[in-house]
Write a structure and sequence with these properties.
Number of strands: 4
Shape: globular
Strand content: 15-25%
Distance between the termini: 37 Å
Number of helices: 5
Mean pLDDT: 88
Number of domains: 1
Helix content: 40-55%
Radius of gyration: 18 Å
Strand order of the largest sheet: 1-4-3-2
């Protein structure tokens, strides 16, 4: 009976630790996600062509965080636009877990253990209508600008609700 009690305490401690990490990760990501959407909507006021500039110039800086010494924060996908968002080896299995999900059968945000037993929190990104301007079947000047800024772009052809990628917060 003594060992069962110790196991229960140990298990409860692990889950509480994961919950604290999840809360901290959400606290980090929420303003970043709001900033992404705010910048995108501002850019879209002048049309998708101008919104591309926001993504190209501002999006990389939106994930900067004042606790960068403790956490790695970012976005990734199996179909990247920006090479800086390419999935690291430890991300590939997590991306596979989400790949077949969509907004209708959304897979929940989760905490995983990765390299050196570090925790990583991920939130799936599902395509919304606004995203299709640049991640759907872009044409004309929008397609040309994307091709110019991202010559190896893979992030097109999406439909509403499809899995686009992940936001993540990883312990360092």
């Amino acid at each position: 009976m003594k060992y069962v009690f110790i196991f229960i305490l140990f298990t409860n401690s692990l889950f509480a630790n994961e919950d604290k990490f999840k809360e901290k990760a959400q606290e980090i990501l929420n303003p970043i996600k709001k900033a992404f959407m705010g910048e995108l909507k501002t850019g879209m006021q002048e049309g998708p062509y101008n919104a591309i500039e926001m993504c190209h110039l501002k999006a990389p800086h939106l994930i900067e965080y004042d606790q960068a010494d403790k956490y790695e924060i970012g976005r990734t996908s199996n179909k990247i636009r920006n090479k800086d968002n390419a999935p690291k080896d430890w991300m590939k299995d997590i991306l596979k877990e989400y790949q077949d999900s969509n907004a209708e059968s959304a897979k929940a945000a989760a905490v995983f253990k990765v390299l050196d037993n570090k925790k990583v929190y991920v939130e799936p990104i599902y395509v919304k209508g606004l995203c299709l301007n640049c991640h759907g079947n872009a044409r004309g000047s929008v397609a040309k600008k994307i091709k110019k800024l991202y010559p190896n772009d893979q992030a097109t052809g999406y439909k509403i609700g499809e899995f686009r990628g992940l936001f993540y917060v990883k312990e360092k």
